[in-house]
Amino acid sequence: MWPLSGPLHIGREMPTAPREHMQRRLPRTTAESKPHARPRPAGEPDVPRAHLALEPATPSAARIWAPLARFVEQEALIGNWAKQHRSTQALYEFVRFGIKQAWACLFGALLLGLLIATHLAYPRGAWLARYDFLVLAAVAIQGAMLAFRLETREEAQVIFLFHAVGTAMEIFKTSVGSWLYPEASLLRIGGVPLFSGFMYAAIGSYIARCWRLFDFRFTHHPPLWAVTALAIGIYLNFFTHHYLPDARIVLFAMTAVLFGRCWVHFRVWRDHRRMPLLVGFCLVALFIWFAENIGTFAAAWRYPSQRLGWSLVSMGKLGAWLLLMIVSYALVALLNGPQRVVKPDR
Fold first, then answer.
1. What are 265's strand-pairing partners?
2. Which of 12, 205, 269, 323 has the fewest other C-beta atoms within 10 Å?
3. Beta-carbon contacts of residue 54 (< 8 Å; ≥ 6 apart)
4. Residue 296: inside a domain
5. How do strand 263-267 and strand 192-193 relate by DSSP bridges?
6. 134: closest CA among 150, 160, 148, 115?
7. Contact 111, 198 (CB under 8 A)
8. Quick check: is 217 in a domain?
9. 306 lies in a domain?
10. What is the number of domains present in the chain?
């Protein structure tokens, strides 16, 4: 089975009643003509005919971002060389996977780099507070990524949406003492400096960019209404568990039921690989936990257990990040619309 980016539609002629004034049959229109394999541009690697017939009609995801578009043809030549041996093919696909992941993480990596750099080198007592500098720097990064077309407008909309959702939760969580921001600043709402919303936005940006870069397709994906209902329940529980019984166990169970049979099919190079979507959620949550430890080490924020000095964030936070991943995924899924893997007719 080769996954498709969309189902193939073959035009069918509908029988019509004979008419005396029609002397000959009209030729097929373009829409009625039979589908044919996409012609291969010069320099594109030679692949089996079956592959060509099932290649997606959409262009390479790299063409979405202008700085990458110029390298598409050169990359095809490298791939043509790499496919000659299994060892070079496997190495090339591994390197390609790493590059795609790095590009997907671009916004989050720049923010994390800023947290570390300002922690180590930002002057104490500067007229501009460190947190305020981080806000302005995050806005500047966002503007530069849009200006140089390192980010699409759709991704910018995702970032804005996540910023609003994350900031609202931050305002509540800091008010009940779940964590705190120890440094003074002007650009804040209550106890929350505005740069914190960009850290949530980085998660949404990563998911949205991965969705395009790896050409996500799904099997046994739950209905969007059910995913949305679960995400709303998770988000509300982040607030209500301070006053009502914590529903986290129930939410974990519902997540397992909804996504237990779901597989995500992702394309690193030519072929779609697949993995259980729940495994993907857990892996991303783990890397967010790593980033959270870097952020607390850089004194971007602190948990009550870190008042006397830095220590590793509790492993229990992995569950919270996994649930937050569901909220993030639901927002991106509503914007993109999950596409199913389609079996070709034989």
1. 217, 274
2. 12
3. 2, 3, 4, 344
4. yes
5. unpaired
6. 115
7. yes
8. yes
9. yes
10. 1
The whole-angstrom separation of Cα 105 and Cα 138 is 15
Q: What is the pLDDT of residue 28?
A: 44
Determine the length of the chain: 346
pTM of the model: 0.76
CB 137 within 8 A of CB 198: no
How far apart (Å, rounded) are the C-alpha atoms in residues 159 and 201?
5
Which residues is 193 bridged to in the sheet?
Answer: 188
SS3 of 209-221: HHHHHCCCEEECC
> Is 326 within 8 Å of 234 (Cβ atoms)?
yes
pLDDT value of position 81: 73
Spatial contact of 130 and 122, defined as CB atoms under 8 Å apart = yes
Tokens representing residue 164 in the block = 């609003």
C-alpha span between 138 and 159 (Å, rounded): 11
Amino acid identity, position 340:
R
Q: Which amino acid is residue 53, in one-letter code? A: A
The pLDDT of residue 149: 81
Q: What is the pLDDT of residue 77?
A: 72
Closest of 213, 178, 174, 227 to residue 197, by C-alpha: 174
pLDDT tens for each residue of 178-222: 999 999 999 999 999 999 999 998 998 899 889 988 999 999 999
Give the distance from CA 118 to its chain's centroid. 27
Q: How far is Cα 113 from Cα 294, in angstroms, rounded to an integer?
A: 10
Token readout for 21 is 């004034």
What are the per-10-residue average pLDDT scores of the chain (346 residues)? 41 44 42 45 42 40 60 67 78 90 92 95 94 96 86 81 92 94 94 93 91 92 96 97 96 97 92 94 96 95 91 92 94 88 54
Give the domain extent around 184: 105-336
Give the integer Cα–Cα distance in Å for 51 and 54.
5
- pLDDT tens for residues 310-334? 999 999 899 999 999 999 999 999 9
275 DSSP 8-state letter:
E
List, in sequence order, every residue forming a beta bridge with 302; answer none if it has no partner.
180
Distance CA 217, CA 263 (A): 8
